[in-house]
Design brief:
The structure holds two protein chains of two kinds. By secondary structure, chain A is α/β, with parallel strands linked by helices. Helices cover 30% and strands 21% of the residues of chain A. Chain A has seven domains: 3-114 and 246-308, 3-Layer(bba) Sandwich (FAD/NAD(P)-binding domain), CATH 3.50.50; 117-242, FAD/NAD(P)-binding domain; 319-414, 2-Layer Sandwich (Enolase-like, domain 1), CATH 3.30.390.30; 418-483, BFD-like [2Fe-2S]-binding domain (Arc Repressor Mutant, subunit A, Orthogonal Bundle), CATH 1.10.10.1100; 486-539; 541-630 and 795-812, 2-Layer Sandwich (Alpha-Beta Plaits), CATH 3.30.70; 637-794, Sulfite Reductase Hemoprotein, domain 1. Classes of the chains: A alpha/beta, B mainly beta. Chains A and B meet through helix 15 and helix 17 of A and strand 1, strand 2, strand 3, strand 6 and strand 7 of B. Bound molecules: flavin-adenine dinucleotide (FAD). Chain B: It holds the Pfam family Rieske_2.
């Protein structure tokens, strides 16, 4: 193919919408015909601006929408840290800040918006900030370190979010709002008052109806904020959040049409007044109106990709509904929140004690025999949002007692039938029909809401519709007569978590009591190992103790891993992968003497294969004598904590990763859990230990450790996500103790940490609330549970070797302990023994003398 | 090792005491040259199956977990293969997950002296 046949598409701006555009261009095949060049002014690739405030907790990496820093498609070139300075529609060229000139066939403007800073005197003093980019937040954090009081100018959605951030940075925080109430755009007067009460209870000071007259200078910096008709507020930090303005300068200078109130004027295909220039996101004004939310921007991105592919897509306006949590207060507004429609009626529920304010805006339907929902406001408890918002869009009839929809949740979520075309997830434009398609499709249909979210995107952006998605999925299964059965197995009508609680509450120590009290039958290969694991987590007993022995899964039953020919593999623990030559030699000698196939594992230890069951005690005697312990490779328990070599040797290392890995491996060794657990520790950001592919991964920073959780390798690899950053070792261990115990207590059987986190309402955020913020007050209980594990730890193999009862089971045949099982054969491959193939049952014949039992 | 000769069903092998088998556990025994898995259920019944799991082609069934499964309202005692978890009816050797698979069963009883006695095959497959 000649290069001439490929066209060039330039995207100006790599923000949320620009990124979505490129993703869609790749997914929908636009890059088959276009080379795409994306030019972004910020030094970082696109990140989740909606979640900007969480930067203070999780850092920049976690917010990134393009963690690798590059698109997978080689036909996309990403240029960062470079502004587009201008473009010429005549010659179809763009000029970059470095002087580079690029010819384009199509140009997409995705330059977003910038905060509006009112031109009050002193607005540009050091100490004045806006709240839009990660760089802004970094600067605010730095300034807050030496400050006592901060003021946010603007009491809208973003202003309150900024105020939240200042408060969390430890500043005495004031919010100054010109309008008579907070969030004037979204909520009504009563809702605004409820919100203000909530916020003041949290220690913030709200000044409504207040006009800023000047930022007062002191020693060349911000010293105070002067207000009209009010005392000045002494402050060292001022954040302007008084609205945003579309960044339309490029278009203006190129002579394109702009909207009256700013923004690049585009038609319903998002095309500007020049046919080869398009505008999307907050810089664009379709039909003259700009949209300050991300969902409409995403829709515009899809429309332009569609147009360039010759499709019919159009942007015809967007749902401006909002739901957010501000300082722990739920706020939502949707549809005609201010009841401006003629004939609209308001239905209000207010609970001053709980701080709830809920309003539905309803309208009589055309036939005059019912009402429809056209909008609403929820403050304090927005749980009904997921159900209500789609009702507005679909215009369905309200139930006879519409107040049921907003009364306290104790009455349960009301039954309402959404029409199929109702948009349930407005961020990703997923309708009820699409959700139903995923649960009812022929091939591997989704069986729960988590899967639907994964497959359809519904609930994956802002998450506010998750409850709605779940309800639709459950209703569907109920309607087809399929009970969403969360029972462990036929013997227990309980989930693993419920079983865990039942056992803890009753203090059970034996399976028999558990199954008699709460189950039926005699159990099976599913519930028995589950109960065994729960008992092990709670009691720290030996897995081969009489009461627990017959409950153990194959591998736990013999403290080794069964292999295809019925032999076992042996894995001694090598904490952190560090081993002395002497110990290494012992492993080699044991392997040689028992003719064991030897292989290095991915977890930095050594696996010895081909031990007959009856040889295990002899092999372990030698290993225990040399100072080895069980590696628990056979258990649903901690496997290894892998490490890189760390600061001790590595010239890049910033912390002692080996030391920490060993400490963690020793701390959590023997811990029984719903599934296997793996950890990793890297001594610097190069991440040579691959810690982010583990259930818990620790990566060293200059200041301490970043803790990542819920990753795994295997068939469905997941990168661990940041739970908390820059921790000292003590805090790190405390969080890890809590995280692991919380997982052990609440996860399903065989559910690894990644799907467990996803299954929690609130996901990783929930984990952070429980583990870091300790909102459930469980922290010390979880730590105590871990402390008791650590104290109670003993080496299972050493204990087994000392106990004749436990050893008695390690025989080939009860009545012929000296006769090896003839079914086990070996052949040689690359100088080592490997399993021979079985040709069927083997008989030794009657000639072999059989010892009579003693 | 010699090729399999039909075991003499008149021979009875004393394999161990009943108390040598854990409740809801199993042991492997050598019975006239064959590997036999002997199980003890919760109600102290004993059952004997070939130890050879035809699904995984390994001699391992005695090491499986013993429990019950509801089959059309009856609580069927079964062992789950430790290899891939297929369930086998302890009474008949029938694989409960695959109608085409069955393992041989053996006569077994507990003598008055508490010893477990295994006889010849009761079924073949
Ligand atoms: C704190 C905060 C909270 C928010 N919360 C929500 C919310 O809860 N829900 C919601 O829907 N929306 C929310 N928003 C709004 C949302 O972030 C925006 O709607 C969205 O980011 C718009 O995407 P965009 O790509 O149009 O603009 P942006 O994400 O701003 O991206 C534009 C990019 O273009 C770059 N750029 C500009 N000019 C040039 C140039 N000449 N050359 C090269 N690059 C250039 C900019 O530097 C920027 O990186 C929030 C915003 C903030 C700041």
């Amino acid at each position: 193919m000649s290069p001439k046949t490929r066209k060039t598409l330039v995207v100006a701006g790599h923000g949320m919408v620009g990124h979505r555009f490129v993703q869609a261009a790749i997914e929908r095949g636009l890059t088959e015909t276009y080379d795409v060049i994306v030019v972004g002014e910020e030094s970082r690739a696109a990140y989740d601006r909606v979640a900007l405030t969480s930067f203070f907790e999780v850092g920049a990496d976690e917010l990134s929408l393009l963690p690798g820093g590059q698109y997978d498609d080689p036909r996309v070139r990403l240029v960062l840290d470079t502004a587009v300075e201008g473009f010429d529609p005549e010659t179809r060229t763009v000029l970059l800040a470095g002087g580079e000139v690029i010819s384009y066939d199509e140009l997409v403007l995705a330059t977003g918006a910038s905060p509006f800073v009112p031109p009050v005197p002193g607005h540009d003093l050091p100490g004045c900030f806006v709240y839009r980019t990660i760089d802004d937040l970094e600067a605010i954090r730095e300034a807050a370190a030496g400050a006592r009081v901060g003021v946010v100018i603007g009491g809208g959605l973003l202003g309150l979010e900024a105020a939240n951030a200042l408060a969390q940075l430890g500043l005495e925080t004031h919010v100054v709002e010109m309008a008579p109430r907070l969030m004037a755009v979204q909520v009504d007067a009563a809702g605004g008052a409820t919100l203000a009460r909530h916020i003041e209870k949290l220690g913030l000071k709200v000044h409504t109806g207040a006009m800023t007259s000047e930022v007062v200078e002191k020693d060349g910096r911000v010293g105070a904020l002067a207000l009209k008709d009010e005392e000045p507020i002494p402050a060292e930090v001022v954040v302007f959040s008084a609205g945003i303005r579309p960044r339309d300068t490029l278009a203006r200078e190129a002579g394109l049409d702009l909207a009256e109130r700013g923004g690049v004027l585009v038609d319903e295909r998002c095309r500007t007044s020049d046919p080869h220039v398009w505008a999307i996101g907050e810089c664009a004004a379709p039909g003259g109106r700009m949209y300050g939310l991300v969902a409409p921007g995403y829709a515009m991105a899809e429309v332009v990709v569609d147009a360039l592919l010759g499709g019919p897509g159009e942007f015809t306006g967007a749902d401006m509904s909002t739901k957010l949590k501000l300082l722990g207060v739920d706020v939502a507004s949707f549809g005609d929140a201010h009841a401006t429609t003629v004939g609209a009626l308001e239905l209000v529920f207010a609970d001053a004690v709980a701080g709830h304010y809920k309003k539905l805006v309803v309208l009589e339907n055309e036939a005059g025999d019912g009402t429809v929902l056209i909008g609403g406001v929820l403050v304090g408890d927005a749980s009904a949002y997921g159900v209500l918002r789609p009702m507005v869009a679909s215009g369905i009839e309200l139930p006879a007692n519409p107040e049921d929809l907003i009364l306290p949740a104790s009455r349960g979520v009301p039954e309402i039938g959404l029409p199929d075309e109702a948009v349930v997830c407005s961020c990703n434009n997923v309708t009820k029909a699409t959700i139903l398609e995923h649960v009812s499709r022929e091939e591997t249909p989704c069986t729960d809401a988590t899967c639907v979210t994964k497959c359809s995107g519904a609930g994956s952006t802002c998450g506010s519709c998750k409850a709605g998605v779940k309800k639709i999925v459950e209703d569907h299964f109920a309607s087809v007569g399929k009970v969403v059965d969360r029972s462990l197995c036929e013997h227990f009508p309980l989930t693993r978590q419920e079983l865990f609680d039942v056992i803890a509450v009753h203090g059970y120590t034996r399976f028999d009591d558990v199954v008699e009290g709460h189950g039926r039958g005699r159990g099976c290969d599913i519930c028995k190992p589950t109960v065994a694991s729960i008992l092990a987590s709670q009691l720290n007993g030996h897995v081969l103790d009489a009461a627990a022995r017959t409950l153990q899964d194959t591998n736990d039953a013999y403290l080794a891993n069964i292999q295809r020919n019925g032999t076992y593999s042996v894995v001694p623990r090598i904490p952190g992968g560090e081993i002395t030559p002497e110990k290494l030699i012992v492993i080699g000698e044991v392997a040689r003497d028992f003719d064991l196939y030897t292989k290095i594992t991915g977890g930095q230890r050594i696996d010895l294969f081909g031990s007959r069951m009856e040889q295990l005690p002899q092999i372990w005697q030698r290993l225990v004598d040399a100072g080895f312990e069980s590696g628990h490779a056979y258990g649903k328990s901690l496997r290894t904590v892998k490490s890189c070599v760390g600061s001790t040797w590595c010239r890049y290392g910033v912390q002692d990763s080996v030391g920490l890995a060993i400490a963690l491996e020793l701390r959590y060794r023997g811990l029984r859990s719903p599934h296997k657990l793996k950890g990793g520790v890297s001594g610097c950001a190069r991440e040579c230990a691959e810690a982010r592919s583990k259930d818990f991964g620790v990566i060293a920073t200059e200041k301490g450790w970043n803790l990542f959780v819920a990753g795994n390798g295997g068939a469905a690899p997941v990168h661990a996500r940041l739970l908390a950053g820059d921790l000292d070792t003590e805090t790190l261990v405390r969080y890890l103790d809590r995280f692991l115990m919380y997982y052990i207590r609440t996860a399903d059987r065989l559910q690894r940490t990644a799907p467990w986190v996803d299954s929690l309402e609130g996901g990783l955020e929930r984990v952070r609330e429980v583990v870091v913020d300790d909102v459930l007050g469980l922290g010390s209980e979880l730590e105590a549970a871990m402390a008791s594990h650590v104290e109670g730890y003993f080496d299972e193999w050493a204990a087994t070797l000392e106990d004749p009862d436990k050893l008695a089971r390690f025989v080939s045949f009860v009545n012929a302990p000296d006769t090896p099982d003839p079914h086990i054969t070996f052949r040689e491959e690359r100088d080592q023994a490997v399993p021979g193939d079985s040709a069927g049952p083997v008989s030794l014949g009657a000639s072999i003398p059989v010892g009579a039992p003693q | 090792m010699t090729a399999s000769a039909e075991p003499d069903s008149r021979v009875t092998t004393v394999v161990c005491r009943l108390t040598d088998i854990e409740v809801e556990g199993g042991v492997a025994a050598l019975v006239v040259g064959e590997a036999v898995a002997v199980f003890r259920t919760y109600d102290d019944h004993v059952f004997a199956l070939s130890n050879y799991d035809p699904c995984s082609r390994a001699s391992v069934l005695a090491r499986g977990i013993v429990g019950t499964r509801d089959v059309d309202g009856t609580q069927v005692p079964f062992v789950a293969s430790p290899m891939h978890k297929q369930a086998f009816d302890l009474r008949t050797g029938q694989c409960l997950d695959d109608a085409a698979v069955q393992v041989p069963t053996y006569d077994v009883r507990v003598g008055d002296d508490g010893m477990v006695l295994v006889g010849g095959r009761t079924s073949s497959s």
